[in-house]
Amino acid sequence: MDSWLPLLDIFMNSLSPETEASLWLQSSFNSSSNPSISISTSTASFISLLNQPIESVVIDSSSSSSLSSSIHGKRRFMWLQTLPDVVQARILSFLTYEHAKFNKQDLSKLARDMLFDATEVNFWVKKAAHQLLDVVSDSNYKWVSCLNLDSEEKEFEGNFGEAPKWLKDVASANDSILPWLPISVDELNMKIPHTQCENDEDMVMEVEESEDGNCESVGTQPKLVHREIDPIDHETEESAACLQMRIKNLESSLKAVELVDDIRQLCLKRKVDSLTVLGLIEPWNADDEVVPILLSRLLDGNEQDFGWTSNILCSVVLPKFLILEKPAPRVLVTATIEYCKVHHKAAVYALLFPLILRKEGINNPICDVITRIVKECLHPAQVSAFCQKLLCEEEDENNYVCLPCHQSLLSRELVWTEPLFNLFQNIFNHNVHLTQDSVDQLVSHTLESSRRFSKSLKFANFLLCFVGKCGPMLKVHKAALSEAVGSTSSFLTKSILSKLASI
């Protein structure tokens, strides 16, 4: 044991234990410096040390009684297993590196004992033991020659595509609809819902819904789809009304924390219709200083639940921005951006889509908020996909989340205002590359708006940026755009026409 203490010290404290241990082994058992020591004998003694049995008392940690009653029994361990996990992994890695100097059978036995021991083995120890076993195991393919593969080749090919025996047995015992499908015709008919549609126009498009989210279709002419839910019971209504009053009369941040916890518990209790419950509570009436507490504490570990994260955003923040007429408070914008940095999808469907579809169109303060969210929270590829959904009327993909009481504030089509064109200019300046479909739709809206904004400097700045950023995709629209730009009368008109001519 004493002769191996320097080696164990290396495994305990060295930053590169395998290399140092190999150098120590080479110098300690060099035949020229110490001819009386045999490497095979010495390395065998090291393996013997690692395999040395140690008897230990196992304590049942699940027992809460006295020590005497919690003793599970005595058990034998290898001495290697008494070392810290990191040291075990280093020793096994060293043995893998220097396996040529050790007996293969001893190393194989050691690795197998570590892998198949009844006690729980650390992940890295198990990985090192696997590597050691792979290195010392012999790969012998002579057994293949005894198989008559040629004679059985046809049989293997014939059986390869067949169903397993247990499926055949179940299918034979039932009147199955398919030979390999253990389900009867009656069972299948019971599980298929029967729907009747007079024609394709009457069919309602599918919308993406979560367990507790109400998603509304978005596009140039979105269809609002409502999912039927159970009515809210009287007890829930009373609880929501009480929480609504508490929101309006908050006195301190401590009270706000308690209030948010109560809101979360009530919504999780009615998870299927949590958006309806939030509509009764009206959390958007809380002061702006309370918004960070609402956004953070309402989650409570449900960060990956798109429906819940969207419901929080559209009920706490969206109503405040929909009625925004002056620059938004810093605390509100900061809390929203921090939330949207983590929940990109909720930011798109529960905030950006509804804001841009505002009935009066977006104004400058709303444009500033959307621009900050786009720049600080979303990847340019996400912004490009968002613009594609917004502009190209892909009704099967466009959805937004909004409370029913706020749907009257939204339009069924985009309202093109100067700030909306300014928003697209900001998107271009953020190095977002739009698809050809998006560019074509944007050209169409630009042509329709050219006379209405003929004297608008913001519209002219958008055109100049649009032509500069998307020039190669505007070749097919060159003549139409030139005519539209010619109808404007800003001092940028000549510059825009010059850029168009160079396309």
TrEMBL record:
Q: Which domain of life is it from?
A: Eukaryota
- Gene3D superfamilies attached to this UniProt entry: 1.25.40.480
The GO annotation for biological process reads: interstrand cross-link repair
One GO CC term, this protein: Fanconi anaemia nuclear complex
Transmembrane residue ranges: none
Q: Cross-referenced InterPro entries, in alphabetical order?
A: FANCE (IPR039685)
- The name on file for this protein is Fanconi Anaemia group E protein C-terminal domain-containing protein
